[in-house]
Amino acid sequence: MTTIERWSQTAQPALPPLRITMLGLRGFPNVQGGVENHAQNLSFRLAELGCDVEVIVRSPYVPSKSSRTWRNVSLVRIWSPRVKGVEAFLHTLLGVLRAGWTRPDILHIHAVGPALLTPLGRALGLRVVVTHHVLNYENEKWGPFARSILRLGESVGMIFANGRIAVSQDLADHIKDTYQVPVRVIPNGIGAPLKVQSTSTLQAFGLTRNRYALTVARIDEQKRQLDVIEAFRRARPMGWKLALVGGADYSSEYARAVAQAAKKTDGVVLLGHQTGEALAELYTNAGVFVLPSSHEGQPIAVLESISYGCPVILSDIPAHREIGASNAEFVKTGDIAGLADRLAAIVHAQPGQRLDETERARLMQVHDWRRIAQQTLDVYRAAL
Q: Which of 61, 161, 240, 318 has the smallest number of CB atoms closer than 10 Å to its CB?
């Protein structure tokens, strides 16, 4: 580096830290959900970059006695009812009003449901960035009215935001084609795989190393756990089990159907929500990872499973194709017979291909949270 270059760098005035408020998620740490996982990791990395970050969380998901800070991120607990279709709107409304009082540099709203309040944020004089995570209105659990509200949230969020982020190219193309507005593609991230030697979680649930299929997702129609259970039953994998990690957000008919199907099907184990070393242990020792979702934005669970080298069987949707894992096998959404055939091939005769180190390194680079935080900070600066 020349003397002039050194002088140029040191002569630049230091930019003041940005004050960021995040909104639209249930809470963290360790609250189930892709948006929650995303916000937890992104906020921590933004704080590392010098931002002053606060995250507004929902009271039912973060105990009142929990810490008010997490890794230099402020957690602001605001009341919300735990009622499907109501809690997100009320909590976001209160959060936007609070942001109108505290005046952050950026109000960062996650997901199209909470994005319904973007115009209110703008009316209060706030700079608003919206991250589009998934086409929520395509989820089978929502009725016509809820779907119309979610579509409206997407529309006003994309039109009124000062900055827009999509977690996949497919989502970005949809936004550009539908609303003719600019959008930045910033993918979901993953951390480095944890190296675990313990098998205590496997022992607790009666699992054997490399002899179980793993699904990690909330119990929800979109994730199609009933398809996985039925495919597993048809495949008849001798000595194998199916481990379903995840819980239901609310008591629902679908959650009850999954619990009943698991109870009736030999070898199916419901593990509930798992995090940290327990989840790492499950990824490390899985024989195959399966996710036959009807739609996704960019599923972090798939990225995590691939980072551990797991062979994967996925529904053939753009979000899964876009990840670009060479060891992925694709099955048409809802094709239970095809899913059963792929499971049978892996467990009976053809061990799944584990991703090599070169491709895993490429995946880790693209989905590195530090890189993602810097790209997000660029969007904030542009929005200002």
A: 318
The structure's pTM equals 0.92
CA dist 126 and 196 (Å) reads 45
Give the pLDDT confidence of 215-246 residue by residue, as tens digits. Answer: 999 999 999 999 999 999 999 888 999 999 99
**Token pair for 212:** 């179980």
Percent share of the chain, pLDDT over 90: 80
3-state secondary structure of 161: coil
N residues, the chain: 384
For residue 223, what is the DSSP state? G
Per-residue pLDDT tens over the stretch 71-125: 999 999 999 998 887 999 999 999 999 999 999 999 999 999 999 999 999 999 9
In tens, the pLDDT along 312-351 reads 999 999 999 999 888 899 999 999 999 999 999 888 765 5
**Alpha helix (H) ranges present in the chain?**
3-11, 34-48, 87-102, 118-123, 144-160, 169-179, 200-205, 225-235, 253-264, 276-285, 300-307, 318-323, 336-348, 357-366, 369-383
Within this chain, domains 16-189+368-383 and 200-365 share the same CATH topology: yes
Sheet holding 288-291, edge to edge: 268-272, 241-245, 212-216, 288-291, 312-315, 328-331
Token couple for 11: 């002569």
For 247, the 3-state DSSP assignment is coil
Q: What is the DSSP letter of 59?
A: G
Rounded Cα–Cα distance for residues 38 and 72 (Å): 17
For the structural domain made of 200-365, what CATH number should be given?
Answer: 3.40.50.2000
Domain range annotation of the chain: 16-189+368-383, 200-365
